[in-house]
Amino acid sequence: MNHSDHNKERLAEAKRQVKRIKLFYIHLVGYLVVVALVLLNFYIMDKGLHEKAITWVNTTTLVGWTIFIFIHYWTVFKGRFLFKKEWEDRKIKEYLNKNTEEETKMWE
C-alpha cells in the first residue's frame, strides 16, 4: 500500500467518524426534544382513568430511549469521555500558539 492510498483510507475513515458523530448529535437533539415533551406531558396530565397507562408509556419511553442513546454514545465515541488527555493537550497548544501570536502582533 503506497502513501496516497493510506492517506485516502485515513480520509475516508475520518469522514465516516464525522458522520457518526453528526448522527449522534442529531439523535441527542431529538432525544432532548422528546424528553422535554414527556416532562411537559407529566406536568399537564390530569388525574383520570388513563393516568397510569400514560405514565407507564412515558416512563418506558424515557428509560428505553435513554438506554439507546447511551449505547449510541458508546459506539460512536468508543467509551471515551468528553475530556481526554489528548483534548487537553491540544487545547493547551492552541492557547500557547494564540498567546505567542498575540505577543508578536502587539509589537509589530
Automatic annotation (TrEMBL):
A Pfam family recorded for this sequence: 2TM
Assigned keywords, A-Z: Membrane, Transmembrane, Transmembrane helix
UniProt xrefs under InterPro entries: 2TM_dom
Segments traversing the membrane: 21-44, 56-76
2TM domain residues: 13-96
Source taxon at top rank: Bacteria
Protein name: 2TM domain-containing protein
Record lineage: Bacteria, Pseudomonadati, Bacteroidota, Flavobacteriia, Flavobacteriales
